[in-house]
Specification:
- Two copies of one chain form a homodimer.
- Chain A is an alpha/beta fold and about 350 residues long.
- A seven-stranded mixed β-sheet of chain A has the order 8-7-6-9-12-17-18, sandwiched between helices. Chain A has a four-stranded mixed β-sheet with strand order 13-10-11-16, covered by helices on one side.
- The first copy, chain A, is globular, with a radius of gyration of 19 Å.
- The N terminus of chain A is likely disordered.
- Chains A and B meet through α8, β8, α9, α10 and β14 of A and α8, β8, α9, α10 and β14 of B.
Chain lengths: ~350, ~350
């Protein structure tokens, strides 16, 4: 099984039912993805044989999360080279199709660019580069965890939004990685998990990850954050990022901005954890970031498990009322206490970001 | 039908399927309530023959919303007098039971107190007083609407949280009443409706009300508020209140605080609409308000309509993860631009509140 090979090579940390897993990996020409739409009720692996199928997986959020999207997009680009190594038009079209699946995700563009360039010399190089992106993603997650752990005091009560755990990457994650390392170091911590409507990645994925890792936590409605902060129940907030602009503005899951504003009001540190690949120096500020608007169906419908063990998709709001569903928001740099990266912790400032990007590692 | 009598007497505004309705009314010894747990998928009336059944209706949120809870509690107290007019112990126990159904709702205590006192002279007086509370509630709603309408500019884009519409009162409502009057006056307005997890009173009840009244609106995830404010898409916010302290601090549905903080950050007026009966002069400030914590089931489960037209209750979050569910939060007076009451619009300040309470009307 390809998985085992990857494990031996990459020293995988995360376990599901006692077995080590990555979020995304490749077996031959097939991209394998943990199906995140099936979680938390079913654990299954989606296998896509073509770049188009992988695009479908990204678009339909079978794979989601900045880092995992990046890795999947890299593999999709490699798949395109494998499908038609000599057809420049096909490759070009594939590149555009992959890039258009999720327009806010910086890691997607970064990965596609790298694999596309590597593929100019040979298909094997494209494939190697895609694997390298996944491997770096794992390393980056581990390093973010080690740096971020330094910020977590003993008995810390943290809040996190959406899912920036290992499911959002290839392993470890960004926002949750410091929490995993803190747990590894024996710290006694508690995590408040924002539900993160409409897709509830917090309640469904982050809670699933934390329960797997036996980390004490509670799911809270997105509405409860400011109240808990006001009551002195939150010591720090850590979130991930989908894109970080050159000036330190952060695009992340819708609702991040509300938490950041509330945190500033109550004097609570607000950290953004992300690998350097999330930083886009070509993007001067948050206002330049395209915010993806997703279907109103995501607001109107919820999929869940009945008491009989059946999965039902049900309408949970007034039939016939329109809904509006922006998927991300932009948190101005002034609300971010620090950015935790795989190269260290920096202030969300232009010069610090530039220096970080120029670091030789 | 008792309903028609009430209509003739009280000049009811709201219509469902072409017929006028109140949220709560009495027919003989039976309290009739629009079943708000069945909405928006089914419109039905719950009939409770005893005060205990009415308590169940309040506790299980068949009736909810500050004003409607008050009216239902008043009727429940009157029912207790009708059930055992000469049994002082029974009446005392009933009073405590009713008061313990929803500890954050000021109108509940206010109504129970009034009906209890009226009942000291005769059961008929208790019943008359309960009817009077409902009638005042309707008048108050209309007046809040007329005052509040003055604050709504032509082409205003409003945001509201939870449901403070006619379903939350006996007719008209608090936060939605100014919107109904603005619409009546021919103003072109648009309402962003916060979903309001975990019970989704916005997506289920406010959206249902606005659609009935043909007012343009869109449901948004609770996470989207600050983003829309940042984008300049919200001109004003109006919410209701469950209790207003003597210093102007406001207890309202969980999530209100986040919107208030975001509104202040982006310089958007944040109005609280409530009848004077919501003000509790005995409560010095928000810190003194008991915040009800509700079951974690409300976070874990959602009830909705399948494509086959069946109602299913499904688990929507990770099985086995704990959840935390505070039902209200407290918005400090400093975040409230003004309080819209049935006696006029005031600043959320101690002296202004005191003067308002002492007004002879």
């Amino acid at each position: 099984m390809g998985l085992v090979m990857i494990n031996e090579k990459y020293q995988v940390r995360m376990k599901v039912n006692g077995e080590h897993y990555l979020t995304v990996w490749m077996e031959g020409q097939t991209v394998c993805l943990i199906d995140q739409n099936a979680l938390p009720f079913n654990f299954s692996v989606y296998r896509s044989k073509t770049y188009m199928e992988t695009c479908h997986a990204i678009r339909s959020m079978i794979v989601r999360g900045a880092g995992a999207i990046g890795a999947a997009a890299g593999y999709a680009m490699a798949q395109a080279f494998m499908e038609a190594p000599d057809d420049i038009d096909f490759i070009q079209k594939a590149r555009l199709t992959i890039e258009n699946t999720r327009p806010t995700a910086q890691n997607l563009f970064y990965a596609v660019q790298r694999v596309y360039e590597a593929g100019q010399t040979s298909t094997q190089n494209a494939l190697t580069e895609a694997g390298e992106i996944a491997r770096e993603n794992i390393d980056d997650g581990r390093k973010i965890g080690e740096y971020g752990n330094e910020l977590i005091p003993e008995k810390a009560r943290l809040e996190t939004h959406c899912n920036a755990g290992w499911l959002a990457f290839v392993d470890y994650g960004s926002a949750l990685s410091p929490i995993y390392i803190a747990k590894e170091k024996g710290k006694d911590i508690f995590v408040y998990v924002d539900e993160t409507r409409p897709r509830a990645q917090g309640a469904r994925l982050t809670a699933w990850e934390l329960k797997n890792e036996k980390i004490p936590h509670a799911i809270i409605p997105d509405n409860a954050g400011a109240h808990l902060m006001q009551q002195g129940k939150i010591d720090m907030i850590i979130v991930g990022a989908d894109r970080i602009a050159a000036n330190g503005d952060v695009a992340n899951k819708i609702g991040t901005l509300e938490k950041a504003i509330a945190a500033k009001t109550f004097g609570i540190p607000f950290y953004v954890a992300a690998p350097v690949s999330t930083i886009d120096l070509d993007c001067p500020d948050g206002a330049s970031i395209t915010i993806e608007e997703r279907s109103e169906e995501e607001v109107h419908y919820q999929t869940g498990l009945s008491d009989k063990g059946e999965i039902h998709k049900v309408m949970v709001s007034n039939p016939g009322s329109p809904a509006f569903n922006p998927a991300f928001d932009v948190t101005p740099a002034s609300y971010v206490s620090a950015i935790i990266t795989n190269r260290g912790i920096i202030k969300p400032e232009k010069e610090a970001i530039k220096s970080l990007m120029n670091m030789v590692t």
